[in-house]
Amino acid sequence: MSAVLAADRGRAMMKIYHGSSIALAALTPTAMAIEGGSAPIDLALGVALPVHSHIALNFIISDYVPKSARGATRAATLALTAATAIGLFRLNAQGEGITRTAKSLWRA
């Protein structure tokens, strides 16, 4: 659990962070280029986005939050990440999916 709370520490988390960066760099333009939507891409985005964001926010916490407040801030970040992951999963499972929802923002 401590590896998830302090997600900016350790080799494994760095590999996951870099892997999620590569996945997002490939998945995002692919999702936008495909007509309509793609469930496998939406599901991959639904995992990669919260994982990447969680680890990145932990880097910010380490750099800018005082040590006395880091524990609570990391716990709040984990709760926000969980809520984001659940929301994206529901959007993919019960809604139009991440890709179609994002594309709808640009339609009149």
TrEMBL record:
Compartment list: Mitochondrion inner membrane
Protein residues bound to heme b: H52
GO molecular function, one term: heme binding
One of the Pfam families matching this protein, by short name: CybS
Predominant location category: mitochondrion
GO aspect biological process, one term: tricarboxylic acid cycle
Origin: domain of life: Eukaryota
Name of the protein in its database record: Succinate dehydrogenase [ubiquinone] cytochrome b small subunit
